[in-house]
User: Which sequence fits this backbone?
């Protein structure tokens, strides 16, 4: 009985995965139709879901030619996930070629309400509790300690009754680039480099309030 049940569940999961792949391909085709003259994004074996979207859980197309709109109770904007697949994507090849970077996720938008605190964090969260043995849990804590020494201010939890498992870092230390656009000004276009690549990290930090995209 258990074997038959697992076989049915596997078949059901495979059918669901087939539907997801079809949806990803359809989203990619729709994206390409919005941007004439650009080839379809390559088929990357990766499924990205927006689990916080207020109108469902739509799929995000990796290496889309245009950013994808999203909205939740806290934030509204656009996201553009870019990856370095094999074979390479000609559309984004100039951005990845000759560099160690393998992916980049650009997010642009506006908070819907003011935050009580002044700090902005970048974090990852999973919905289910993490079950670790004593040895694995000790190793995980060691890894987090090393990360915290590299990026100070990190906060993590393996999950409690009050909070889900997560790890978060101050955005100013975790993000490569941040551009704050004044109300009424036009933000930088997504998909392009926000700062000249020849600048040092210190020079990029100095340009946060003065940089104007070409």
Assistant:
């Amino acid at each position: 009985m258990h074997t038959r049940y697992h076989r049915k569940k596997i078949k059901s999961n495979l059918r669901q995965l087939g539907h997801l792949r079809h949806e990803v391909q359809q989203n990619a085709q729709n994206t390409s139709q919005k941007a004439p003259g650009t080839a379809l994004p390559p088929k990357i074996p990766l499924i990205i879901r927006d689990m916080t979207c207020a109108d469902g859980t739509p799929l995000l197309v990796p290496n889309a030619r245009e950013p994808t709109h999203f909205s939740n109770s806290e934030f509204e904007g656009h996201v553009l996930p870019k990856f370095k697949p094999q074979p390479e994507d000609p559309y984004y090849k100039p951005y990845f070629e000759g560099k160690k970077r393998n992916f980049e996720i650009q997010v642009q938008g506006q908070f819907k309400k003011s935050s009580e605190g002044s700090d902005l964090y970048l974090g990852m969260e999973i919905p289910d509790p993490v079950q670790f043995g004593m040895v694995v849990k000790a190793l995980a804590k060691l890894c987090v300690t090393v990360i915290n020494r590299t990026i100070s201010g990190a906060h993590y939890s393996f999950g409690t009754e009050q909070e889900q498992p997560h790890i978060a870092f101050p955005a100013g230390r975790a993000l490569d680039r941040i551009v704050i656009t004044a109300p009424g000004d036009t933000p930088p276009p997504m998909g392009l480099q926000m700062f000249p690549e020849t600048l040092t990290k210190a020079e990029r930090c100095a340009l946060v309030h003065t940089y104007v995209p070409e």
Summary: The chain has a mean pLDDT of 72. Helices lie at 2-34, 93-96, 134-150, 171-174, 201-206.
